[in-house]
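hey
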């Protein structure tokens, strides 16, 4: 049975009461912070503003294009059997690039397993993201080099990690902030509720960034909550805001404000980036079984990259030479990713027995010997 999501049945086409604050009066949808419409028109918002140079605008566009290219290449590599699994971010580039570029180097980021765009903004080499999905390492990068934690597969647990880290930041007297990413499905997890409670009570400098992509695998958002997700923050005693997650300018402005609020001792904040997962939940998922093509088509018209390109071209912030050069750069990135994945060395099979006990253990030693003998048996059979 195909289930229509809230997004499919209630398209956000209502007239706005004020510029940049979209509200569908017919269905009572909450206001949405927006600075760039799906048609690529610049609008203003009374509470959030941003003034970027042409170079900065081109930089955001470049970030999104290269992130999408990397993501598409990773998906292709999985289909070719080079990766065991991949979680695509297709359609969520603005939410990730806008929020990622809002962070300072001394801020700390706790991602899920889909924040490839945020990793890009934090300076993590894209090829380092692929080792775990190829099965050759447990992460692939040092979290302390870029203040970007390892990917978290357990749903929602990183919200607690971020809260604890933020409480430590406050005790240290630092003026940095922490940001935790999670999806609409994770918002139903107890770990997220506990994180909200502790962050509020301890006034922790943490921003909770929920990418509401409408589907928790095959469950629509309407089966996760009876109220808009950002309103959940009210019950814990801190503010929440819904932003157009396909508008990179609005996401950047809102996240900057939230992080600065946290840095200045005003406590946590919840951002709901209202976006859409254009592809499958992961490469093991088939979204055609639970959502309609019409729903995707509705959101394709709100594509985050297309709307920024329209704005850049209309306002003269970029020319054809820029777009052509970026296309060349994206192809070079794809080739680098392909080459890196295919040449990743296999891990040492015996490494799983290392670092279990500080002083060794008889049972582990026995298991190591048994596994070594098992591996050797294959070589004997081939001879």
């Amino acid at each position: 049975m195909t289930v229509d999501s809230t997004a499919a049945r209630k398209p956000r086409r209502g007239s706005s009461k004020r510029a940049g604050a979209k509200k569908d009066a017919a269905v009572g949808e909450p206001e949405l912070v927006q600075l760039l419409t799906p048609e690529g028109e610049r609008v203003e918002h009374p509470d959030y503003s941003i003034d970027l140079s042409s170079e900065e605008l081109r930089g955001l566009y470049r970030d999104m294009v290269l992130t999408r290219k990397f993501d598409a290449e990773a998906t292709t590599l999985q289909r070719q059997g080079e990766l065991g699994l991949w979680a695509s971010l297709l359609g969520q580039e603005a939410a990730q690039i806008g929020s990622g570029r809002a962070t300072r180097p001394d801020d700390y980021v706790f991602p899920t397993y889909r924040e490839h765009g945020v990793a890009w903004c934090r300076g993590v080499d894209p090829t380092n993201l692929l080792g775990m999905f190829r099965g050759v390492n447990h992460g692939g990068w040092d979290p302390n080099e870029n203040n970007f934690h390892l990917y978290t597969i357990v749903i929602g647990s990183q919200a607690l990690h971020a809260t604890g880290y933020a409480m430590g930041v406050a005790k240290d007297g630092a003026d940095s902030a922490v940001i935790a990413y999670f999806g609409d499905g994770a918002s139903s997890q107890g770990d997220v509720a506990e994180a909200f409670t502790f962050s509020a009570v301890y006034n922790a400098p943490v921003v909770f960034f929920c990418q509401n992509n409408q589907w928790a695998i095959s469950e629509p958002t309407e089966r996760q909550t009876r109220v808009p997700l950002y309103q959940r923050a009210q019950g814990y005693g801190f503010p929440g805001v819904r932003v157009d997650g396909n508008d990179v300018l609005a996401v950047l402005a809102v996240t900057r404000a939230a992080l600065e609020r946290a840095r200045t001792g005003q406590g946590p904040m919840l951002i709901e980036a209202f976006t859409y997962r254009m592809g499958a939940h992961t490469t093991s998922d088939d979204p055609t079984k639970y959502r309609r093509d019409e729903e995707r088509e509705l959101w394709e018209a709100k594509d985050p990259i297309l709307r920024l390109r329209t704005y850049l071209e209309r306002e003269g912030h970029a020319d054809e030479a820029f777009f052509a050069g970026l296309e060349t750069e994206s192809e070079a990135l794809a080739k680098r990713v392909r080459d890196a994945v295919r040449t990743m060395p296999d891990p040492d099979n015996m490494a799983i027995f290392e670092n279990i006990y500080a002083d060794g253990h008889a049972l582990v030693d026995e298991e190591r010997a048994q596994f070594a003998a098992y591996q050797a048996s294959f070589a004997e059979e081939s001879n």
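The two ends are 53 Å apart (CA to CA). The longest helix spans residues 54-79.
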